[in-house]
Amino acid sequence: MAIVAQTTKFSKIAWPVLAWMVGLLFFFPIFWMVLTSFKTDADAVKPEYLFWFKPTLDNYLNMTENYDYWRFARNSVITSVFATVFTLFVGIPAAYAMAFNPSRATKDVLMWMLSTKMLPAAAVLYPMTFLTKSLGLFDTHFLIIMVLSLINLPIVVWMLFTYFKEIPKDIIEAGKMDGVDTLGEIKEILVPLAWGGIASTALLCFIFCWNEAYWTVRLTTTEAATLSKLIEGNRAPEGLFFGRLSAVSTAAVGPIVVLGWFCQKQLVQGLTFGAVK
């Protein structure tokens, strides 16, 4: 006899209301940032102009004309895309080897990779800066791509390892019996079966690369500077220019929000991969 939980009238109203409250709580900072971007720097700090003010596009015009927004945006796209591709290029074979050819050291290797994320970035800032300047790599796209790739590689390997473990080994073994080599197993069997997980991993990796601020600010000056550097540049001894800062921040997070909206199907598919048997 099946037991059906009864839903009260209160729960039908309370849970949607609670969900909307939580959603609005998370959305409010973004709303406030966008709202402030249409204020002048003077109006942005005046309490009487919290909601009632004269909108202006001067902050956006100033951003594109005087701060060369498109150059910073282009650098963000280049470094994020190439870092994501390189991370997947290394992470997929590594996760494949650990998932389908494990050894007694596999768990230790995974834990060691994850432990690298616990290292404070400030602890290696000076040697990284000294080394990159000595090698002539400071403020280059190659440096930022490598740094972003190595930062996100442990998370990518962990996620892909989890997805690959859900694929039956019998399928891989059947491919070996048919004479498929290792590269063919990854290309023809593994990638199509785990495409949802790979797509969601790539999306999250791209977001992490795009949002990285610590290293992109400290290892660049002009040539490879990303949008994080542009945001940091709207700080002066006189204080923060909240209007311009909000406009630059809105322009920086806008592409990621749009990307996440259009790729939400792949993201949900990847995050729920293997949940239903």
From TrEMBL:
<feature type="transmembrane region" description="Helical">
    <location>
        <begin position="77"/>
        <end position="97"/>
    </location>
</feature>
<dbReference type="GO" id="GO:0055085">
    <property type="term" value="P:transmembrane transport"/>
</dbReference>
<dbReference type="GO" id="GO:0005886">
    <property type="term" value="C:plasma membrane"/>
</dbReference>
<keyword id="KW-1003">Cell membrane</keyword>
<feature type="transmembrane region" description="Helical">
    <location>
        <begin position="12"/>
        <end position="35"/>
    </location>
</feature>
<feature type="transmembrane region" description="Helical">
    <location>
        <begin position="109"/>
        <end position="128"/>
    </location>
</feature>
<keyword id="KW-1133">Transmembrane helix</keyword>
<dbReference type="Pfam" id="PF00528">
    <property type="entry name" value="BPD_transp_1"/>
</dbReference>
<keyword id="KW-0813">Transport</keyword>
<keyword id="KW-0472">Membrane</keyword>
<protein>
    <submittedName>
        <fullName>Carbohydrate ABC transporter permease</fullName>
    </submittedName>
</protein>
<feature type="transmembrane region" description="Helical">
    <location>
        <begin position="140"/>
        <end position="161"/>
    </location>
</feature>
<feature type="domain" description="ABC transmembrane type-1">
    <location>
        <begin position="73"/>
        <end position="263"/>
    </location>
</feature>
<feature type="transmembrane region" description="Helical">
    <location>
        <begin position="241"/>
        <end position="263"/>
    </location>
</feature>
<dbReference type="InterPro" id="IPR050901">
    <property type="entry name" value="BP-dep_ABC_trans_perm"/>
</dbReference>
<feature type="transmembrane region" description="Helical">
    <location>
        <begin position="189"/>
        <end position="210"/>
    </location>
</feature>
<dbReference type="InterPro" id="IPR000515">
    <property type="entry name" value="MetI-like"/>
</dbReference>
<comment type="similarity">
    <text>Belongs to the binding-protein-dependent transport system permease family.</text>
</comment>
<dbReference type="InterPro" id="IPR035906">
    <property type="entry name" value="MetI-like_sf"/>
</dbReference>
<keyword id="KW-0812">Transmembrane</keyword>
